[in-house]
Specification:
It contains three helices and six strands; from the N terminus they run H-H-H-E-E-E-E-E-E. It is α+β, with helices and mostly antiparallel strands.
């Protein structure tokens, strides 16, 4: 081999080595760039997954709240009608409580008809979960009663209901009309028995 061939071969080897190094550098840059892109994509995927989880949780909460609201509405369905019926029931009760000693036969017959209607309405309301709040001679309960009058009687203890001015009613487990009552307040220096 002559010297020229050796130089050309050395030059080719150097060029090849140089090209290989450039190729390796390009590969490293591509790999580095690829790794950055992969990391960026991984972060985006993580971010999107978190958004999906938040939206999913939010949807579940909305569905749960809607179901609870629907259940509550169905539970107390008809409350407005019941309130109107209570007023009618009160009117029948006032008519029934009239003094019937001086009534004619005709009026007495009307009164007995009122009593039957009152009993039917009362039974119908009970069958759907409407109950009267018992409060006469019971301790005053501000969650179920409104004190509209105060009286002083030493025959009863303090805060005992002396009289029911308007009946109160519960619908299932909810007070739909508090009772209007007269409550005892023992005067200072008075004794309660």
């Amino acid at each position: 081999m002559n010297k020229e061939n050796v130089e050309v071969t050395e030059e080719k080897v150097e060029n090849t080595a140089s090209e290989q190094e450039k190729s390796k550098e390009k590969k490293k840059k591509k790999e580095h760039h690829s790794n950055k892109e992969i990391e960026k994509l991984k972060e985006e995927i993580t971010s999107q997954n978190e958004k999906i989880l938040r939206l999913s949780a939010e949807m579940q909460n909305m569905r749960r709240r809607a179901d609870e609201e629907r259940s509550r509405l169905l539970k107390y369905d008809g409350e407005a009608i019941i309130m109107n019926m209570l007023t009618i029931l009160d009117n029948f009760e006032h008519a029934i409580n009239m003094d019937d000693t001086n009534l004619t036969d005709e009026v007495s017959k009307f009164l007995s008809g009122f009593k039957m209607i009152y009993a039917n309405m009362s039974d119908s309301l009970k069958s759907i979960g409407v109950t009267e709040i018992e409060c006469l001679h019971m301790p005053f309960d501000e969650t179920k009663m409104n004190a509209v009058l105060i009286d002083h009687s030493n025959d009863f203890e303090n805060n005992i209901v002396l009289d029911v001015l308007q009946k109160g009613y519960m619908y299932k487990d909810k007070v739909i009309r508090p009772a209007m009552v007269k409550v005892n307040q023992v005067e200072e220096g008075g004794t309660s028995e």
